[in-house]
């Protein structure tokens, strides 16, 4: 699993790794050099010994032959032929000194050569010393000794020959080494190519792409590894596919009312949040009159049939007017419709069509007065509960009018004009007149301590009255200032991390518009390079329903944030917005579940199964799954049993 607190490490053993081909190439090259070095040293020593022996034999042969040649002339020590014969031998150049002495040891002829061979380096002579070979031969005339001749070989010739032998052997060895390394490189590249394929496959599996090796390697051991990798890839893909199917099925059960097939109230609240941003539309509240009496009169089976028929009529009527419309069942007798995009000029005809549909359902079940309808417009600056309350209030008013009647709220109070909002948003952001509080502390359920907390922005108007943050963010997006707000929040969070030496992660909420801002990315890149120690503590949070609108943008931002050392959290996650397949591709660091998924989980087996499946997906994809705002102790215990790493409560 990823690290859960503190700065992410920028350097690891992976940065100091070396490929197998390089290791083998270096190892074999070092072995070659060791073998060559030892063999080369032994060869040089043998050649030196051979040259020394040859030098001694040559000196002795020369002394012997010269002594025999000089013997007839030793009767006259002053005979010039003695010097002539010695000079002829000496001129061959292989001798350092030839000296002729008489029987009393007096020197008759002496020739010396102090020639230095510049071709041979001094260091070579120093490291490979050679003995100077000297041989002596006595000269006799008849039975009498008349003198002796001493021959000393010149070592320079032996050094020169030894040095040339060394250079020839060295050049040959270097050429052989270069050729061997080239052949070894080609051989290793061919032999290790399957391992590179397996390495790429492993990286693909880690990234969530379960590739397989089509052509298995011919080397037995590598073939077995490749076959095992293929099997593992298939099994993991199967497990994730199975979990995805389970999540879809369980999510469907949790989202939809079992009897009518309509969405539940939790989906209504989420859908309403998705509609923030000024989109035109209406919310419809439908309430069945005297439902308890109706159920008692009709019986359970007939009542269920009536509810199903009513749900079908509501959805058919709504989708006929607006294809993107959705139907919801809140409680036994309360229904709702959300029609995004429905214009004011079409709301009255739609209401009449809905009234006719209610009459048809009533006639089918023998009830003249079946339900009443309240309709309220979407308010981009209001809370979802406030809009629903307005529709419910209109529904109550419709009860006073007549059977199956309706009431339409014609508008809503904006409170501030566009110009007032513009001035307020610019002033608050430019002057940084907003406060940051830290909420939703996520406890590390495995090791204890604090895993992360959320930086929550609070804004106030001129009188100090708190403004709804959703409305303020919506207006900041409308005036293209949301990126500036997110930038200011990020700066304040880092200032706190530095000042208070905070060690846990801090979650910073970003809007999708901020993710698109190239100016924000350029600033964040420069800012985090100036604060690398705090980068790993920043956890940028984006809501799941925002990500669902542009998954590619979210994935691109994850790569960007990871490049800076920061981490990313997918907030209020539900499988209906972002599928497991999409999560597998995006690979955020954290997923924070929507609070409804864990609310009442201790008494709802479907929720428990769903959260367990999401946790298993997180384990497989190396994503940390945390729960949000777990209210009861029993729910928290179940969350702990499931194995979620963290939860706020």
From TrEMBL:
- The residues covered by the EAL domain are 418-649
Q: Does the keyword Mitochondrion apply?
A: no
Could you list this entry's UniProt keywords, alphabetically sorted.
Membrane, Transmembrane, Transmembrane helix
**Domain GGDEF: where?**
279-411
Q: Which GO terms describe its biological process?
A: signal transduction
Species assigned in the record = Allochromatium palmeri
Q: Name one GO molecular function term.
A: cyclic-guanylate-specific phosphodiesterase activity
Report the GO terms under cellular component.
Answer: membrane
Q: Which residues form the HAMP domain?
A: 189-241
The record, for Gene3D superfamilies, names: 3.30.110.200, 3.30.70.270, 6.10.340.10, EAL domain (3.20.20.450), LapD/MoxY periplasmic domain (6.20.270.20)
Transmembrane segments annotated in the record for this chain: 24-42, 169-192
Among Pfam families, the record links this protein to: EAL (PF00563), GGDEF (PF00990), LapD_MoxY_N (PF16448)
Q: What is this protein called?
A: EAL domain-containing protein
The source's domain of life comes to Bacteria
């Amino acid at each position: 699993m990823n690290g859960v607190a503190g700065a992410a490490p920028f350097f690891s053993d992976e940065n100091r790794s070396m490929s197998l081909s390089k290791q083998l190439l270096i190892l074999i090259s070092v072995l070659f050099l060791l073998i060559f070095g030892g063999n080369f040293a032994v060869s040089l020593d043998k050649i030196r010994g051979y040259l020394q022996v040859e030098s001694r034999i040559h000196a002795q042969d020369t002394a012997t032959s010269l002594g025999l040649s000089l013997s007839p002339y030793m009767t006259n020590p002053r005979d010039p032929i003695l010097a002539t014969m010695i000079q002829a031998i000496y001129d061959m150049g292989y001798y350092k000194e030839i000296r002729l002495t008489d029987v009393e040891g007096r020197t008759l002829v002496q020739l010396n050569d102090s020639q230095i061979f510049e071709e041979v380096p001094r260091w070579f002579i120093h490291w490979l010393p050679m003995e100077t070979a000297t041989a002596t031969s006595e000269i006799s005339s008849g039975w009498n000794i008349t003198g002796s001749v001493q021959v000393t070989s010149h070592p320079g010739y032996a050094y020169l020959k030894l040095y040339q032998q060394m250079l020839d052997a060295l050049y040959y060895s270097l050429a052989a080494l270069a050729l061997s390394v080239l052949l070894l490189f080609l051989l290793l590249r061919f032999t290790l190519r399957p391992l590179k394929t397996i390495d790429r496959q492993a990286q693909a599996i880690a990234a969530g792409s379960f590739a397989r090796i089509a052509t298995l390697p011919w080397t037995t051991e590598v073939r077995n590894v490749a076959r095992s990798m293929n099997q593992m890839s298939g099994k993991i893909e199967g497990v994730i596919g199975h979990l995805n199917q389970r999540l879809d099925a369980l999510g469907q059960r949790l989202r939809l009312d079992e009897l009518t097939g309509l969405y539940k109230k939790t989906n209504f609240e989420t859908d309403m949040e998705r509609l923030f941003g000024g989109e035109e539309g209406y919310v419809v509240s439908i309430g069945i009159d005297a439902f308890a009496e109706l159920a008692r009169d009709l019986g359970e089976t007939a009542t269920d049939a009536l509810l199903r028929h009513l749900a079908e009529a509501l959805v058919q009527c709504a989708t006929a007017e607006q294809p993107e419309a959705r139907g919801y069942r809140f409680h036994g007798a309360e229904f709702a419709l959300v029609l995004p995009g429905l214009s004011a000029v079409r709301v009255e005809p739609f209401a009449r069509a809905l009234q006719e549909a209610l009459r048809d359902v009533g006639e089918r079940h023998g009830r003249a007065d079946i339900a009443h309808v309240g309709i309220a417009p979407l308010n981009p600056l209001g809370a979802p509960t406030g809009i629903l309350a307005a529709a419910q209030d209109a529904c109550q008013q419709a009860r006073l009018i007549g059977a199956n009647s309706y009431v339409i709220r014609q508008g809503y109070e904006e409170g501030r004009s566009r110009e007032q909002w513009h001035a307020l948003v610019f002033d608050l952001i430019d002057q940084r007149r907003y406060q940051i509080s830290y909420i939703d502390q996520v406890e590390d359920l495995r090791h204890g301590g604090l895993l992360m907390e959320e930086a929550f922005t609070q804004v106030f108007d001129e009188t100090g009255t708190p403004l709804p943050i959703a409305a303020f963010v919506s207006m900041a997006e409308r005036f293209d200032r949301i990126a500036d707000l997110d930038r200011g929040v990020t700066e304040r969070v880092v200032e706190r991390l530095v000042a208070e030496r905070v060690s846990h992660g801090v979650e910073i909420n970003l809007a999708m518009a901020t993710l698109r801002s190239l100016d924000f990315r350029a600033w964040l890149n420069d800012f985090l390079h100036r604060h690398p120690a705090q980068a790993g503590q920043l956890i940028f949070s984006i809501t799941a329903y925002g990500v669902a609108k542009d998954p590619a943008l979210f994935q691109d931002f994850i790569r960007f944030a990871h490049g800076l050392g920061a981490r990313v959290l997918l907030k209020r996650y539900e499988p209906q917005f972002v599928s497991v397949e999409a999560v597998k591709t995006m690979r955020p660091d954290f997923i924070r579940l929507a609070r409804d998924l864990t609310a009442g989980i201790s008494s709802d087996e479907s929720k428990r199964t769903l959260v367990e499946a999401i946790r298993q997906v997180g384990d497989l994809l190396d994503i940390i799954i945390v729960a949000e705002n777990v209210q009861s102790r029993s729910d928290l215990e179940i969350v702990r049993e499931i194995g979620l790493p963290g939860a706020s409560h």
